[in-house]
Design brief:
The complex is a heterodimer of chains A (about 350) and B (about 140). Chain A is of the alpha/beta class and about 350 residues long. Chain A is built from eleven helices and eight strands. Helices cover about 50% and strands about 15% of the residues of chain A. An eight-stranded mixed beta sheet of chain A has the order 3-2-1-4-7-6-8-5, with helices on both faces. Chain B has about 140 residues and is mainly alpha-helical. In chain B, helix 1 crosses helix 2 and helix 1 crosses helix 5. Classes of the chains: A alpha/beta (about 350), B mainly alpha (about 140). The interface between A and B is large, with 66 and 50 residues.
Amino acid sequence: MPARRADLTIIVPAYNEENSILDTLDSIKKQSVKAKRVIVVDDHSTDKTADIATSVGVEVRETPTNTGSKAGAQNYALTKVKTKYVMALDADTTMDKSAVEKLLQAFKDENTAAACGFVIPRYVNTVWERGRYIEYLIAFTYYKPIQEYFGKPLISSGCFSMYRTKFLKESNGWPTRTMAEDMDLTWSFHKKRFNVRFIPEAVCYPIEPQNFSFMKKQLIRWSHGFVQNLILHWRNVLTVPYLNYIIAVMTWDSIIASIMYLFLIPAFSIIFRSPWLLLLFIIDAPIVFIPVLLQGLKRKELIIVIISFPSFFVLRIVNAIFIMEAYWSEIILRKRLTQYEKGH
Amino acid sequence: MNTGLPGTGIGGLFYMFSVFVMIFIEIKDIIFRRKNGYSKAIVLEQTIIIFLLIVAIYTTNIFFSKYVFKKPPIYLAVNANLSAKASYVVTNYPILVPLALLIIVLIFTQALYVFLKSSKNERDTGVEPVSSPWKGDIEPLN
């Protein structure tokens, strides 16, 4: 039976991904609906990324010089895209067999500009991977479906998203003006009243940071990216119903909760000599656990969920440190982060 | 709370209220026999989640008021001044604090939207806007 083929190009930006790119290309090959074209963009890797991709027969394009960012590498390939749809897939991310097919369903509506899916860490071993696993389960089980209902998914994940090529090119591709190009692009699409969809049945598995050094680089990027997008978009997103509330609440939480975790809770427990107050660090544990438990049951990963749950609170404190640093650096010191550092 | 970012306080409550709005929309459309194109599966799943969340919040409330903040005697609540009564309510229903904060944040957001909208209307009529402190630092939006 001939394979079903979509008018789709998959772009895989890669910089030193020799350890993971084969798995990514393998998952592309096994899709129930194949792409017309797959382009690996080698952003001047210093390892064997390009050789490995070429050895499995995939088209490899090397950027003229290192672009310094994932968005830069993707934009280089975008100039060569002639298909109706284009997908960006990280070189350390694999997909479920029907992921492409499921995402394509979202584009039956002509106004859909982007579609993203459910993200689950591929490996769940270290405390950092476990913390990220719980974070994703909460976000993609609780928050994102609600955002989807109101037509306002906050971010079409950069590691795994499909776009209508025409709209993406009209927006000049992936913006390189912030550290979080996926957030920037999604908010721009919402501002233009395009549809952005979240399709939970389309699942991908990125490799998440396994150690603190890698996690630190990613959190610095994400935190600075959020604050940069806030500064850039705040006037425009205020005019987008429901998205304005999501971002306002998120901003409040990222500032106030961070101040609470890092300063107020420790200070109050010392001042009032009440160790009970330290329970405030985990006061929401039952609430956080509910969506995570339900998704764990659905995915038959209950044991992994229970073992990983405490790691979420460790990662949350670390998140608080980096988001506070981002606000301080970007807004108070007016020092923009412009150096993109992937980490591995 | 969102992926990669801290905070749970009002974020979780905001999404809970969003689910109440979803349920209201679905019931309204069932009554008026309208097809709204929204996913019923999402509504059902989220309804189950927030039902369990409400149980969890209630249980957490009881634990904190009984064992951490120590529920004050009933006579104090009845005969006390405003400050003592407020303290009684907050320690027995700590959820009211993030709830109040959520309402303030949403009202502030809406007010800012109205203000910006009227500023935009002034710009359209030729009135010079206040120059942005970020002008020149960041490329303009598309």
